[in-house]
Amino acid sequence: MEQQVLRASLAPQRSVVRGEAMSGVIGIAGGTLVIVGSWLPWFTLYAGLHPLRGITGLNGKLLAASGLLAAFVGLLLLMKPRRVLHWLLCSLGLCLTLFTAWILAGVPATYRAMQENPLLVAQLGPGLWVVLGGTLLIAAGASIKTKRDA
After folding, report:
1. Which of 12, 38, 80, 116 has its CA 20 to 30 A from that of 56?
2. Mean pLDDT of the chain
3. How far apart are CA 31 and CA 74, in angstroms?
4. Model's pTM, two decimal places?
5. What is the rounded distance in angstroms from the CA atom of residue 96 to the CA atom of residue 130?
6. What is the per-residue DSSP string for 49-99?
7. Residue 43, SS3?
8. 50: left (phi over 0), alpha (psi -120 to 50) or beta
9. Predicted confidence (pLDDT) at residue 80 exceeds the cutoff of 60
10. Has residue 86 got a pLDDT over 60?
């Protein structure tokens, strides 16, 4: 009888910890994707011979640092589930998604300007799309409802 009462009292806490731990794992994965995407080429010139990586510019460096921060907050959330860390990861994911969308809004104009020079043979690279996937993963994963939030 006492064991059933003890199990019943521990069950909600376990599910809360699991929900926040899942947010932590997703935050680590999304932060890693953001870091990898900032190192991948965002554009290539001369039919792929010269990659223009995101990390060479300020925006790529900011995204890589923010991805590292998101992975660190996800790790902290895994080790010590706290509501503050959960909300920090969620707001960081939303801010990163908006920042990446703002960068992506400027890509067509940059691409058209590169296309005007036929010797450049400019192509879009996968980096910015990987960053966008990582930021969406952080925002969606951190938005998981826990029983504390409900």
Report:
1. 116
2. 86
3. 8
4. 0.83
5. 13
6. TEEEEGGGSHHHHHHHHHHHHHHHHHHHHHHS--HHHHHHHHHHHHHHHHH
7. strand
8. beta
9. yes
10. yes
